[in-house]
Every structure is written in C-alpha cells, then in structure tokens.
Amino acid sequence: MTDHPALHLDGVSKRYGAFLAVDRVDLRVARGTVHGLLGPNGSGKSTCMRMALGLLPPDGGTVSLLGGPPDDDRRRRVGYLPEQRGLYLDMGVLDHLQFFGQLRGLQGKAARDAASYWLERLGLTDWAKKKARALSKGMQQKVQLAGAVLHEPELLVLDEPFTGLDPVAQDLLEDIIDALRAKGTTIVLSTHQLDHAERQCERVTVISRSKVVLEDTVDGVRRRGRTGWYAVQADGDDAWMVGDDVVDRRREGPVTHLRLSGDDPRPLMARAVAAGVRLDRLEAVLPSLRDVVVGLVGERGVAGEAAEAGEAAAR
Predict the structure, then answer these.
(1) Are residues 80 and 168 in the same domain?
(2) Do 140 and 268 fall into the same domain?
(3) Cα–Cα nearest to 206, from 37, 62, 31, 75
(4) Composition of the chain by helix, strand, coil, percent to 5
(5) How far is residue 123's CA from residue 131's CA, in Å, rounded to a whole number?
(6) Same domain assignment for residues 171 and 31
(7) CA-to-CA distance for 154 and 143, rounded, in angstroms?
(8) What does the pLDDT look like over 221-234, one tens digit per residue?
C-alpha cells in the first residue's frame, strides 16, 4: 500500500471577496481511517472539502487527492455526499442510482446491480420506481448516500450525512461506515453531531474561524479536556481516599469519583496499597468529544461564526 495519504491539504486558503473562508489549513487523512472534520457553521469545513475534491481552486497552498492532483480520474475513485442535497425530482429512484453509477464508471448491468444492492441495504427497494419527489427528506438522503458509495470508492467524503435521518437510519449509517472502514475505505466525516464523530472517527481536525485549532486522535482530544476527576472502585475501608491531593469527592453507587489537585494519581494508589485495599478500578474520567469541542470554540462562537459567514456571502 502506498505511503501517500488519501487526502492532503497543505496550507490551503480560500477567499470570497474580502472574506477569508479558509486560512492556511493543513489536513492529512491517512488511508483506511475515518477522519472527522469538525467545527461551527461557517468555519470553512465545506469549502475545505470542495477544494479537496477539485470543485473549488484554492487561492493558496496545495491539494493532493489519492496521491496526486484532484483531476477527473481521481475524482471517479471518490464518493461525495455534499451538505447541499439535490436530486432530479421527476427521475425515478433506481434511475438516479444507475445514473450516479455510470458517472463513476460503472456500465450497464454493473450499475444496475450496484443500485439494486444499495436500495435493499437502505430499505428502499419498494421505492425503486417512485420519483424522487415522492420521497421524504430522509429517504432522499438515503438515495444520495447510495449514489456516493455504490461504485465502491477508495475515499468517501460525507458532509453532514446524518441530517434528516431518523434514529434508526442514523444507526444504519453508522453500521455502513463501520463496514466500509473494515473493507479499507478512507472516510472523511464532517458532522455537527459529535456523538457520532466520537464513536466513528479515529482522528479529528477542528476548524474555527477559518483555521485549524486542534488535530488529534479522539482519545487525545478527550484527554486534553480532562479536569482531574477519577473513577474509583475498591474493596475495603475508604479512609485512604482522604488526602491533600483530593479536592472533591462524590459517591455514585459502587463508584467513587475523586477530583485530584494534579494529574498524578500515584500518591492515591500508594495510599490504597498501604491500606491493604483491593483496587478494582482507578481511571481518569474523560469529557466527551462534544464537551471539549464546545469548550474550545464556544457555544456563542457557533452562532457568531454562522452569522459572520452569512454576512460575508451576502456581500
């Protein structure tokens, strides 16, 4: 397997008039991984994805897609679900998928077989002959998802894929992402639903106000936000839990939560050993990915950046 990443943005920038939408963003997506692209509305995520796919030219920096420039040949090896949905409302569902397959190089029976498989996989077989306008928003979303994956892309770029899907369909999409990853597909996932990102992604890049503000593994991001709380389960007297290093203590059933003044739990462990206590559990309590990202960019920043982007587009 090549050492080249599936996608590499190297210092890319993009302006819309006076508005700097993307400011020297670096993004490196390793092959065979699920990489999250996170951040508030208007932060530049969708613009980055369009530049990655050659749909927008960068004003600065370079783009490498599957080891080279994002030309037509490489784009045919990519599946893309954009945030702005769009189907031909008077075209049948099966016809849509055959058309999408042909655009990606599938011919005749291969396109029809792939379309039929994904209709069944997504629970849309009974709607194959229906026109797109007869479908609900969630069903239309499923059709466009099928169109992005039916040609078995090497790289799949998903921009807000969970929007419009009910909880059952969201679980199905997570299963599909897991199955594609197991087959070696590289996936870029942009979503505001950070619980999905925490479960699905190995690494995440957070963009705020047009710049990368954090890039790490999901576990690494969560560890950056830790607040000194540890979960403890032990058999025996709990007098050893009292010390100058313990600044707060809470009991929840069999688990005691201790907040330490520093990041080193070894003095606590030493007291447990000295007391002859059987220590069944002592682990850091990490915040969720959502808690860390919201703490980084701020709830008010989300609304502010969306408004700023809207004003810039209007100008």
Answers:
(1) yes
(2) no
(3) 37
(4) 40, 30, 35
(5) 16
(6) yes
(7) 20
(8) 998 888 889 999 99
Same domain, 97 and 200: yes
Residues 114 and 231 in one domain: no
**Final residue belonging to a domain, choices 199, 222, 245:** 222
- 238 with 201, same domain: the answer is no
For residue 147, give its domain range. Answer: 7-222
Domain boundary among 222, 238, 268: 222
pLDDT tens digits, 67-106: 999 999 999 999 999 988 788 899 999 999 999 999 888 9
Whose CA is closest to 12, among 193, 209, 212?
A: 212
Q: Give Cα separations from 295 to 209, 213, 221, 289, 308 (angstroms).
A: 15, 12, 12, 10, 20
Local structure of 215: helix, strand or coil: strand
Q: How far apart are CA 61 and CA 64, in angstroms?
A: 10
CA-based max dimension of the chain: 76
Please tell me the distance from the alpha carbon of residue 204 to that of residue 216, in angstroms, as a whole number.
6
Range list of H helices, the chain = 45-52, 72-75, 93-103, 108-121, 137-149, 167-182, 194-200, 218-224, 266-274, 289-297, 299-314
Instruction: Decide: helix, strand or coil at residue 303.
Output: helix
Query: The pTM is what?
Result: 0.85
Number of domains in the chain: 2
